[in-house]
Structure formats: C-alpha cells, structure tokens
Design goal:
The chain has 330 residues and is mainly alpha-helical. It has 18 helices and four strands. The chain has a four-stranded mixed sheet with strand order 1-2-4-3. The radius of gyration is 24 Å and the shape is globular.
C-alpha cells in the first residue's frame, strides 16, 4: 500500500514538472517599446547639460550608441557634448521630423503586440538567446534599424510613408521610399535582429552562399511573422511578386548557365542581392534583390525535404550542403 502511494506521488510530481516545463516552453514575451525620441525632445533647451546624466543613467549603452554611432555628436564625457546635443535638439529639420513622427506614431501598442508575438516565437525556437530591449528614436534619416548585443532601435523617421515629402527632398529614390512605410517595421526588426544573431560565416563568399543566406533570413522572418504577406517580408509589389513566381525557373537556369553560382566578385553578388530598383542581371521588370526570392525557394525546399529545426537551419552555414539536400526543382 505504502509503495503504491509513493509511486502515485512520484507520478504526480512528474506530471506537475512536465506541466511547468510546458508552460516555460510557451512563455509569452512582453515587449515594451521605450520612446527615446520623446524623452530627448521633452528636455528643456536651457536644461540640456543638467539632464544628460539622467538620460545617460536611464538609457545606458543605448544612449552612448545613439549619440556616437548614429548622431555622431560624441559621448557625454566630451566637453562639447552638451552643445552638440543642443544643436541636434534645436535643428529645424530634426524638429520637423519629430513632429511628423509624433503625429504618425502617437501610439505603438499595436507594434508592441506584434513584436511580443514575434519574439515569443523567437524565444521558443532559440531559448538560450537574448530577447532585445527595444527603443524608438530619430536617427536623422540614417539607419532604419540599429542593433547591439541586447538592443534594437527603430528609426521612426524612416517609416513616415512613401509619400513623405521630406524623403524626396533628401534624395531617397522611389524604390527606397516605397519601403519607408510602417507596414515594414516589424519585418525589418526581425531581419535586423537575425542579421546580428546569425551572421554569414561561410568561408566561401560567393553568389550561392549569399542568396541562400539571404533566403535563410527571409525564411526566419516569415517564421517569426507568419501572418505577414510575402510581399511585406520581401518588400515587393504584387506585380513584382508575380514576376518572381513566374520566373523562378528562368532565374535559376540563368545563374547555372552563366556559371554564376560560385562567382566571388562583389559586383556580381551585389547586383543579385543588393538594394536596387530592379535586379540588373535579370530584367527591368524584376524587383531588386530578386535572387533573394530564389534563395528563399531553395530554403523552403530544403526544410520540406529534411527533418531540420529552425535553430539548426540558422546555424548551418554550409550552403553546398543545403543546396545538395534541398532537392530544389523550380
């Protein structure tokens, strides 16, 4: 009788431990976005110098990264730093950008929810990796995304919409302005984080390794944001998506027939995966980075034909191995 009670107790404890483990696996990450641009532009201009220690204490590494790496105004310890920060905060163009950001993004709760879901999936797939702290800022129309070891910052002045007149005046090309829209923020966040966490370490720097690496980044992003359309993940218009679907075989045949898969020159690689109005090696109807779509199709085929986790995929930089096991038949 005593033995059976002990056995029942052990079973109950085991069941409870499994339930707890299951809860941990399904743990929901809660993203809270820190509006750094609001904190900065709320500082009274006659109090900038005395507010710097508070900003430095609150934002820590993010403040240093922002001031030195993005604004290029140095670090808080520099003698001229208060004057340079004041110059940024009183610049009429930056104030106009801040006003437009405030009007366009009065509330980020929807983005917080979307990123919470995305990083919850990330946490379940990569439980040992850090989920970043997320900030928004005004970058002076520089980088759209800024990443560090545990930080991810969004330049909201780069997502005011394709019709924003400031973008045209600043010289952004039409194909660039099309991507400067709020619908791309979440996917850009996940791509930027993936680039930082999963760098391309393949020793063979060629066309194949680049299109498959970019294909992996696209696949990762789609897995983190399963409700986003492929057109958002890739930044392609409906017509461009149709072109890619209709020309997958032609793109693949062209790269093979021209013996480009193992080309190592930067110009060829950049023409295939670099931002552009169209992919110069294909046709003017193609979108820029059309070869990334091709790499994504190979990754899809690889995942279909192999029992591989997302973590194993992202850590595999043997692109010859991926291609040979993809059984890719466009």
């Amino acid at each position: 009788m005593k033995s059976s009670c002990i056995t029942a107790t052990v079973r109950l404890l085991l069941l409870c431990s499994l339930v707890v483990a299951g809860c941990r696996t399904e743990e929901q990450v809660q993203i809270r976005i820190d509006r750094m641009e609001q904190s900065l532009f709320a500082v009274p201009i006659d109090s900038v110098a005395e507010k710097i220690p508070q900003l430095q204490h609150h934002y820590g590494q993010m403040f240093a990264l922002y001031c030195r790496g993005i604004l290029d105004i140095g670090l808080p310890d520099d003698p001229d730093f208060p004057l340079r920060l004041t110059g940024f905060l009183t610049d009429p163009h930056m104030n106009m950008a801040y006003r437009k950001v405030t009007e366009s993004f009065p509330d980020l709760s929807g983005l917080e929810k979307k990123l919470s879901n995305a990083f919850s999936r990330y946490h379940r797939a990569f439980p040992e990796k850090i989920v970043p702290e997320i900030y928004t800022l005004i970058s002076g129309f520089n980088q759209s995304m800024i990443i560090s070891d545990s930080l991810l910052a969004i330049s909201l002045d780069k997502y005011l919409g394709a019709g924003e007149e400031m973008y045209a005046r600043l010289g952004f090309a039409v194909y660039q302005r099309k991507l400067m829209d709020r619908q791309y923020i979440a996917s850009d966040c996940m791509k930027a984080w993936a680039y930082g966490e999963f760098p391309n370490t393949d020793s063979a720097e060629n066309v194949l390794s680049n299109i498959l690496y970019e294909g992996k980044i696209a696949y990762f992003t789609a897995q983190m944001l399963p409700n986003d359309l492929d057109s958002v993940i890739f930044g392609f218009s409906p017509d461009q998506m149709k072109w890619c679907s209709n020309n997958t075989l032609q793109m693949w045949t062209f790269l093979i027939s021209q013996k480009m898969l193992y080309a190592t020159d930067y110009m060829t690689i950049n023409k295939l995966v670099g931002p552009a109005p169209f992919t110069a090696l294909f046709t003017r109807e193609s979108p820029g980075r059309a070869a990334v779509w091709l790499g994504y199709q190979i990754i899809l085929s690889y995942m279909k034909h192999n029992d591989v986790t997302l973590e194993e995929l992202m850590n595999n930089n043997n692109y010859l191995d991926i291609l040979s096991n993809a059984k890719f038949k466009p």
